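can u do me a favor
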């Protein structure tokens, strides 16, 4: 984003009940089931959801105890947890098919370690990470607040908060912020579309959500009433997979930085950490966040590239967007490679990624989340490299 002048920037988020997020949740639930049974399992699971139908497909390598019946039951539990028990999509009645098959031996041979060969990357590709000082979570403000609005509604639905009574799982938010010289200063518009029970008045829904949105945004940032759009098309009763088909991996910008940073193109959900699409993108976020948290820059974009079957990254690139505080980017690239082994094995060991920690990542963003020390989740959001980075640059 521009560093000078006045401009508007917009990001969107979608809720756990959005059809694509239902698919992501099921794919990550499959992944967690395999990693729970065997931390070295290989999983690449894609899910399709539509009216009372769920299809899981892809390739796996893991213990025989994770049967199609087990995965079918777990998929139903995930749908139940999201909150779907409607005529067109119900955790009880949806037809669930499990079409997962064994991982290709050609892919396995390229990725597996053997002899003097270390574990290779699961695919070629480029991955990006980003961090900035716009929010306490070191995330761009538009995507951060778009997530927070939907998280507040989700928490209210699950806790029985009367402020969101009658709202159903499917929802989308969109936040447009005004920037002055690179800093966000207020919201100019907010769009919120939320599924609801039959018979609810749109004006009543808007009145209740106005207070929720105002409470999420920083003080004084609320947009004018005329620019708050709640269910702008009217009724939103038929939603979720009954209203639109959902697929794993279709919300990659929602999952990352809301368009404020480049994206390598690979999706995350349903992929085990040998797939650098996921693990290296998490590592890039981890390193970028630590750079900004250490006070070395106000913005940091990090790119890493890999070749399938090759253990070491082909390139590491850092861009501080002119905000580096007497920091040489070439030196920083070397320091980061010294601080973290960026091979697929090094990443998954450093961030402890071969564990069943992924279903919670499937909605409301993979980044900007609070690390949970008790559950040891979102390890890539920790800032434990800050002391070493400061020492490296005499801070």
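np, heres the sequence
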């Amino acid at each position: 984003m521009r560093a000078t002048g006045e401009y508007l920037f917009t990001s969107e988020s979608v809720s756990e009940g959005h059809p694509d997020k239902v698919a992501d949740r099921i794919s990550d639930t499959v992944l967690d089931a395999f990693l729970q049974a065997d931390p070295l399992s290989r999983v690449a699971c894609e899910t399709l959801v539509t009216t009372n139908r769920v299809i899981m497909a892809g390739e796996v390598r893991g213990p025989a105890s994770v049967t199609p019946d087990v995965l079918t039951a777990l998929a139903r539990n995930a749908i139940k947890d999201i909150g779907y028990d409607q005529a067109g999509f119900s955790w009880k009645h949806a037809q669930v098919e499990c079409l997962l098959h064994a991982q290709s031996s050609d892919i396995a041979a390229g990725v597996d370690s053997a002899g003097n060969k270390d574990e290779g990357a699961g695919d070629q590709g480029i991955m990006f990470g980003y961090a900035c000082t716009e929010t306490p979570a070191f995330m761009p403000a538009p995507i951060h607040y778009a997530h927070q609005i939907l998280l507040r509604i989700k928490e209210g639905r699950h806790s029985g908060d009367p402020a969101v009574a009658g709202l159903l799982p499917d929802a989308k938010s969109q936040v447009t912020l005004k920037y002055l010289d690179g800093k966000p200063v207020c919201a100019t518009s907010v769009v919120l579309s939320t599924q609801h029970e039959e018979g609810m008045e749109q004006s009543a829904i808007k009145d209740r959500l106005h207070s929720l949105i105002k409470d999420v945004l920083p003080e004084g940032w609320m947009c004018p009433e005329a620019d708050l759009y709640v269910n702008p098309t009217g009724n939103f009763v038929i939603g979720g997979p009954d209203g639109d088909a959902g697929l794993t991996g279709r919300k990659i910008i929602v999952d990352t930085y809301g368009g404020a940073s480049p994206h390598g193109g690979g999706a995350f959900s349903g992929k085990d950490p040998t797939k650098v699409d996921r693990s290296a993108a998490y590592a890039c976020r981890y390193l970028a966040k630590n750079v900004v948290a250490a006070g070395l820059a106000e913005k940091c974009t990090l790119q890493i590239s890999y070749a399938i079957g090759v253990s070491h990254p082909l390139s590491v690139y850092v861009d501080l967007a002119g905000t580096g505080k007497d920091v040489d980017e070439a030196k920083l690239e070397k320091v980061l490679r010294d601080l973290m082994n960026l091979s697929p094995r090094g990443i998954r060991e450093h961030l402890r990624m071969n564990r069943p920690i992924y279903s919670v990542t499937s909605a409301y963003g993979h980044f900007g989340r609070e690390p949970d020390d008790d559950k040891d989740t979102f390890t890539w959001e920790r800032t434990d490299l800050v002391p070493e980075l400061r020492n490296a640059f005499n801070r």
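The first helix runs from residue 19 to 37. hope that helps!!
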